[in-house]
Every structure is written in structure tokens, then in C-alpha cells.
Specification:
Strand content: 35-45%
Number of strands: 6
Number of helices: 2
Helix content: 25-40%
Shape: globular
Number of domains: 1
Order of helices and strands: EEEHEEHE
Length: about 90
């Protein structure tokens, strides 16, 4: 599951991932948010916080993540931070 952080604004997007990420997290949250930010601002800054409650991705979600990172949006990140828990 993913939740957009309330500090997100304009081209600055922040998310907290817990449990397992699913295809629907990408289709309903990540992709629309990224498309909107890139369309409006050209580039985005993104934070993904994965605390110890984060359990990984389903296979389809992992593929979605790969496509976002090195595919469609690969040139649209101004900055990207991934922060994890103790593991």
C-alpha cells in the first residue's frame, strides 16, 4: 500500500510505502501523480519512504516500478530519494 505524504506539493512528490506494493498503487497513485507533475512543471522531485513495514512488490508492481524508473519517466526526475528502514 502507498500513501501520498501531505507535504507533497507542485512538482515535489512524497510517498510512504507499507506492506506490499501492487499494480493498482502504480495505476491509481504513482503514474497519475507523476504525469500531472511532469506535464505542469517539466521535472519532478520524488521521495519514497519505505519503513520497516514495507514488504516489497508483487511481480506486476515490480515491473511497473521498473518501467517508471528506466522507461517512460527516466528523464523527468530532477531529484529522487529512496529512504528505507533498518534493513
Amino acid at each position: 500500500m502507498v500513501k501520498k505524504l501531505p507535504e507533497s506539493q507542485d512538482n515535489i512528490l512524497g510517498y510512504k510505502a507499507t506492506g506490499r506494493l501492487h499494480d493498482e498503487d502504480y495505476k491509481k497513485i504513482f503514474i497519475p501523480d507523476i504525469e500531472q507533475a511532469v506535464e505542469k512543471y517539466g521535472k519532478m522531485r520524488c521521495l519514497l519512504y519505505m519503513p520497516k513495514e514495507f514488504k516489497g512488490w508483487t511481480p506486476k508492481a515490480f515491473w511497473d516500478d521498473f518501467k517508471i524508473g528506466v522507461g517512460k519517466f527516466k528523464n523527468d526526475y530532477e531529484k529522487l530519494a529512496i529512504v528505507g528502514g533498518p534493513r
